[in-house]
Design a protein that fits this description.
By secondary structure, this protein is an alpha/beta fold. The chain is built from 42 helices and 25 strands. Helix content is about 45%, strand content about 10%. The strands form six sheets. Strands 12-14-13-16-17-15 form a six-stranded antiparallel β-sheet, with helices on both faces. The chain starts with 14 loop residues before the first helix and ends with a helix.
Length: about 950
Amino acid sequence: MSEAPSGHPLLHPDQRLLAALGQAVPADAIAARATDRLSYAHDASHYLRVPKAVVTPRTASDVAALLRTCGRDGTALTFRSGGTSLSGQASTDGVLLDTRRHFRGVEVLDGGARVRTGPGATVRAVNARLARHGRRLGPDPASEVACTVGGVVANNSSGMACGVHANTYRTLDSTVLVLVSGSVIDTSAPDADDLLRRQEPALHHGLSELRDRVRGNSDSVATIERLYAIKNTMGYGLNSLVDFERPVDILEHLVIGSEGTLAFVAEATFRTVPVHPHAATGLLVFPTLADATASLPTLGETGFATIELLDSTSLRVAQLDPRADDAIRAVDVRAHAALLVELQQDSAKTLAESTARAERVLRELPVTGPAGMTTDSARRSELWRVRKGLFTSIAGNRPSGTTALLEDIAVPVDRLLPTCEALVGLFDRYGYEESVIFGHAKDGNVHFMLNERFDRPDLVERYVAFTEDMVELVLGQSGTLKAEHGTGRVMAPYVRRQYGDELYDVMREIKALADPRGVLNPGVLLDEDPSAHISHLKTSPTVETEVDRCVECGYCEPVCPSRDLTTTPRQRIVLRRETERARVAGDQDLVERLRQEYAYDGVDTCAVDGMCQTACPVLINTGDLVRRLRSEQAGRVEQALWHGAARHWSGASRLAAGGLSAARRMPSLAERVTSAARSVLGESKVPGWTRDLPGGGTARRGRQAARPDAVYFSACVTTMFGPAHGSRGVRDAFLDLCARAGVQLRVPEGIGSLCCGTPWKSKGLDDGYAAMRERLVPILSEATDRGRLPVVCDASSCTEGLTVLLAAAQEGSERTDVIDAVQFADIVLLPRLPRLRRLATVVVHPTCSSTQLGTNEALLRLAAAIADDVVVPDDWGCCGFAGDRGMLRPELTASATAAEVAALDGRRADAYVSTNRTCELGMSRSTGATYRHVLELLDEAAR
């Protein structure tokens, strides 16, 4: 398999390799197109290695077979799940295994005291299931929205509050390990050590010898005790050789933090920690960094769960945020530093007592302003935004073409001040402007961020020199070069310098015992090449606004509806970068191939739902990029047709409704006609009709009121798509609810010709969007008495569309408030309604638009008003129906809803509700249950 393939390496993959992999797993689990390989070449680190193939195993047995295959032929193999690691441990030029897609299972055990999970489950997903038991995982990494349990184990993750007492090493209960030989070891089994001895005698014996070797060397033991008293993810976890007797326990804890170089973790069981639901937060601003760090011993004794450091540059950056807390904005930052502190307790009473004690201590500190604590959730969120927004502010505004580097170190707390001061000196010496220092001061663990260009040799040399000086600084302060982010490739050449020759040799022995042929993630964690950390550096060609701001962190991926079908927002962006890189290099064949594959993978299967923006630290909406690409691809005929539809929308929407009703009467003919049209005109242009679609709805009409309280904007989807069988629809339900509550509504004359503009915007049809905007704005201005009355819309996606359209179109003093009908019902109608009839159970599907509008809590309150048990599936997400996208690309909705459908398997409810007609159609199609608008159920309950 080592023989190189002929032709372009990206256009002609290694067929011998693919054939060998095909003997281990089904062919549909193997991907080797240029798009597949380049999209997985990028992770959150500053390294770029293109895999020869990407394999998506389904089971531990698949992984075992792949390990045997690659081990036999000496092919490098790397596991990747969330791809959020910053140190290069998730990239390879060998075979990449995507272990996220099929390893997401979560099982809560012992009433939440333990949890068993697959490596592909995100920390947030695990904690969501534990939350109802008042528990959570011990590790609390900031990337919890996207990082997975596999990465948490592989990197020995910690976070802001867990320190070294509740990290992965301390809270892991057991694992199922797949060794490079294909052996599977369940460490929870009573005979696990005997099984390891029988199946892997050399490994078992070798670990016993290394245990005795380390324990017999007092210098080694002293070094281990010193380095593991602080956060430390450099090299292998040698503390396991001191802490455990049985080789199987030693192996299990060596795997923690091994970054995929020793074994595959097919399953992990954790001991969980309690959630402290009551918290008080405070921001303490000090005149100098010295004052802040001098206060750490006192604050640590006071019982703060978190103590976060922000240096003077961090404060200046935070002040640039228009939403920054007033206390931050008021500081005339010079040499100031701040500590963000938080108390966490089980009850409000205990928190009040702790806060009172803490505030007495805080009054004695040399702070420059108020030193109080707040329990107000909004104010606490504002304070935490200061800390969490640093990465956003620096990374999002970095110069185009630069790479954002986020590094972390740890030193004993009493060495924190000289370390930070020396780091600032290094930033100045090497010209790294606006570099910030922040982090977990309680643990002596700080992060620093700098921007660098890796397309210039002189700047690479600058980075190398800076790194050398930084290494000398940290080791000189008895610190560790990696506290949380893992050794990866970035610090692999420096492991020997931190541990010394003897312990480094022990690490090499560990690697040789567990992976004799060196196929598991070679070059990660240990590397003898002194320049390995500057090999395969990632450069970022300038492409376009949405692309250039991306730091490739991957936070967007878990919320993307197409993540398991084609590509994620991160992958859409990096493929744009790779296309531009190929264009600049003159590789036209690769450019054409990438563009061809991107048409479906990147453009057609994007729901443009904007959910990626809700998770993105630099607030990129990849849907904006896709909409622009669709606009560029739209032909003149398509633009003209949709422009005509915008000008005659009343007739066009009624025509669509008539077509749906006719299709219901002649289903076989409708299927044949739409199928033929899709074959001729293209699946991305013509929606497919299926028998689960309803008939058409009724026309919208104007309505006057003597003293209107609001303007009602009934969405045009209520005209095109009729209600579910036996239902009245959301329009009639909302009108009746308002009448019952004594609320008067005005409906604009000409409502039938109006739309929020989303159908045109989502397709990139700019002419039609402009035409609808020109008609809509003056009509709504008149109907709302120039903004005096709010506009209420009965479809959450249309509420969002109206909000965006009016915000961009209205100028001057006139601003029209747009309120979703769910929020309006929660605030205005619900308190005025009579006693409601209740159901036993209601299943709720929040939508992408209700999430972005911030109306999910209102949705849940309405559901709770009509049902005793309100169920939101743990794995809910955007349904991918996206207007007509689910009719154009039904596979998108099927993939997007698969996890939610599985979560509902076997559960029966009295009703299923959502906030948008097309989302209701998508969920009804996927689950087989009938989803309706929550206001329809509220109306029925009020009758």
